[in-house]
């Protein structure tokens, strides 16, 4: 399966910022045939006891969205002016179980060969959140080909007994150029008075897990 490229910017925000987002002009220009959606998502992240995936800058998760399960492998890429660029392999799976054979043509194959036993990949933390999302074409006059998904995520990351709140806006490039994505992020930061969130949910989960393992 060929990798796709995920290009996105995360912005840290609070509940009051989310209310302000609903009134932002960017949401007044929906992409053709696009409708807002609201879903409860549960992400379960997997790794070995020695964090073999983390050391290789990979994240492996199962996501439940309604009755559907998705399996996703992300390989860390570049960061460019606050923009996260990652390779991604995503596919539906039958249920709450990894289907590792379908990732045999990805960088995960080398990890599986090294660890020897795929059962060593176990759930290590999860992210539970509600996502509200809008697919927009915010600059129809000067950048009509630019389309982005703007999502507000609200929930928590759970690692053992520790939790960390999720309250962030994600802007993902769907079509067009990265420069328009950066400009849209600039407008949202300026108008909503918010700042970038450079950490992925996976990175925050590993940090939370590390603090969970430190004796009180």
Biggest β-sheet, characterized?
Answer: 8 strands, antiparallel, barrel
Strand content: 35-45%
- The termini sit apart by 44 Å
Count, helices: 5
Give the rounded overall mean pLDDT: 94
CATH fold-level label: Hypothetical Protein Pfu-838710-001
- Helix and strand content put the structural class at alpha+beta
Give the SSE layout.
Blueprint: E1 4-12, H1 15-21, E2 37-47, H2 52-55, E3 58-65, E4 68-75, E5 79-80, E6 83-93, H3 108-115, E7 122-136, E8 147-159, E9 162-175, H4 178-192, E10 195-196, H5 201-213
Protein traits:
216 residues, alpha+beta, Hypothetical Protein Pfu-838710-001, eight-stranded antiparallel barrel, globular
Concise account of the structure shown:
It contains 5 helices and 10 strands; from the N terminus they run E-H-E-H-E-E-E-E-H-E-E-E-H-E-H. With 216 residues, the chain is an alpha+beta fold.
Task: Describe what you observe in this structure.
The chain has about 220 residues and is of the alpha+beta class. The protein has a single domain, classed as Hypothetical Protein Pfu-838710-001, CATH 2.40.320. Helices cover about 20% and strands about 45% of the residues. It is built from five helices and ten strands. It is globular. The mean pLDDT is about 95.
